Amino acid sequence: MSHIESFLDYRAARSLTTGKYTRLWQNVLPYLLILPTFAFVMLFTLLPTVNALIQSLYQPGNARVPTRYVGLQNYLDLFNPNTLIGADFLRIAGNTLIYIFTTVPISMAIGFGLALLLNRKMRALGLFRFAFFYPVLIPLIGAGSIFAFLFADQIGLLNTILRSFGLPSIKWIGDPNWTLIAIIMVSIWKQAGFCMIMYLAGLQGLPQDVYEAAELDGASTWQKIRRITLPLLQGTTLFILTTSIAASFQFVDHLFALGEGQPNERSNLLLYFVFQKYNEPRNQGYVSAITIIILVALLLFTVLNFWLWERRTHYEN
Amino acid sequence: MRIKPFKRVRNALSTLLLVGAAIFWLIPLIWSVLIAVRPENEPIVTGNIFVGSRLTLENFQNVVRVTNWGEHFYATLRFVFGVLVVQVVTITLAAYAFARMRFWGKRLFFGLILIQLMIPAAVLIVPNFATISALGLYDTMWALMLPYMGSAFGTFLMRQAFKQVPLELEDAARIDGCGWFGVLWNVYLPPSLPSLVAFSLVSITTRWNEFLWPMIVTQSSENRPLTIGLSRVLRTSEVGALYGQITAGVLIVIFPLMLLFMLFQRQFINSFVRSGLK
Hints:
Number of helices of chain B: 13
Number of domains of chain A: 2
Distance between the termini of chain A: 43 Å
Number of strands of chain B: 0
CATH superfamily of the largest domain in chain A: MetI-like
Strand content of chain B: under 5%
CATH architecture of the largest domain in chain A: Orthogonal Bundle
Oligomer: heterodimer
CATH class of chain B: Mainly Alpha
CATH superfamily of chain B: MetI-like
Helix content of chain A: over 70%
Number of strands of chain A: 2
């Protein structure tokens, strides 16, 4: 008897002897296995999303006024620059967009450049990888704390360097024009290493024969990067882009050490603003609405990236 | 070949560029160490530029008085590994069902779980805080850990790993009399360990560095992880901005992970890559 036959035989024998109880068990088992994950995800992802959506349609009451349904009024307030909350929200939403669309492309460009430089046989590769990757592993609040010192007015390293060149020192944290820039610099410092290792992994998977062929044709380094490397790494680029944008919405912890959004919310970011206001009863409707707005923005970026992913040229075979 | 000398110059140039960038990236770390071991608030121009007028551990001695680091360290360990242990169990079970079992609604349930990839818990601090309060769990370790116990990302990663395992191996194990758990334990888990390690290292790193959520749902220092201890140093020293203490605090918080990273650099980096490339 072949193995397959004996196996079928065994199965038949088993299902004959095991009966109803086991068959029920077989049907229920998969649900039991997925239950913990499903329950946790429902309770702390889907339910809160629905919860925030509902809360965002209500105006919280107080001792005198009961909570009441206001439809989209909270959203209208947020997008109206003439309301108290709207002025802040629009400024902070603008900051967040600036923050994301500077941090992400600059980190990616630096990461790509570093990956190109590191993608060859060289000594002390581990040391270089440590230097660029360790910021990824330290807490953002820690990074903020270190940079708070580097940015400090009198004794900070940056201002000491500026002064040694005879330049005026900058009030990095506190000057409305510089605080957001300082915050962006910290994020780039922290994220570039992640982009670097992803690009490095991508580069190491590229076929070498294409480059050899290009070299025989006399292609310059720049041409090879533009015509071969970048197109072949389209998938990697899109992946880093998606994850980095989603991550940037959440990368706000360093604001705690770098000015807390001041002066005048000029350096604040959406999630940090939510964090500052979550416990003020009168703002419950607004923070819920902002949560939903962040989620919608995340969703839009994800859809956009999917669309780009579908449209990308396939080079693999 | 005439290309050779040109190539050598270019290699030297790119090494130079790399060295410069690496120094630039390392400055915050090196500087923190230097500031932590020099006397408090001594301007850079005083004494030796690197170590100031004298080497001292005063900053560390002072910073341990600001908050109870022992409690914070213990809280971080419970938070990080409490979440990890639950995650490893839940994602393994769910991934096995999604990878190799047939049941009604499989795609639907998988899709619902994957929504978590798009909606990170970090963004849901307001409604999740409401849930935790309603459950009466404010200021407990449960409040910290619950939102992270189910992981769509981990489930997805392990499902991919399990799908790589040849079906014939499962059949063979079944013939040998293994039940579902025996199959999972003996057939599916061993070849999928690299994925599990990758997931674990990423999970450990993210939990270790968590800040906003612990800040919101905990109050007593026995439930507050190291990052919150650091924030206390930042706030108590604000008047004089005691940077020596702040950097000493940062070093206390990052030291365990940095040590792990130095010992297992390759595993860390591979984990982050693997968790990205799917």
